[in-house]
Specification:
The protein is of the alpha+beta class and 90 residues long. The chain is 37% helix and 39% strand. The protein has a four-stranded antiparallel β-sheet with strand order 2-3-1-4. Helix 1 runs antiparallel to helix 2. The longest helix has 15 residues.
Length: 90
């Protein structure tokens, strides 16, 4: 498995989850877990995805998600699970 953590943060608008998930589906990336909250008008989502079957590289997918986020006015970040885990270890 090739797990990646994707975070999306920004002002809430219609279709954020749909656009991110549609992009991931086009790239053959499997969504394993997803959590999202809205605090007042701000959207926050964290996804764990498996890129083992992806038809593009990590860098290409991360850049594509960055563009998807830019078009919606949100920030989308991708981190490999091992880097995310090491950064958030207590």
């Amino acid at each position: 498995m090739n797990k990646v953590i994707i975070t999306v943060v920004g002002k809430d608008t219609v279709g954020i989850i749909a656009k991110v998930c549609t992009y991931l589906a086009e790239k053959q990336v499997n969504v394993m877990d997803i959590s999202q909250t809205i605090v007042q008008e701000y959207f926050n989502m964290m996804m764990i995805v498996d890129m083992a079957g992806a038809n593009a590289s990590f860098d290409e997918i991360a850049a594509g998600l960055d563009e998807v986020g830019y078009q919606m006015g949100v920030v989308v970040k991708c981190q490999r699970e091992e880097i995310f885990t090491k950064m958030h270890r207590i």
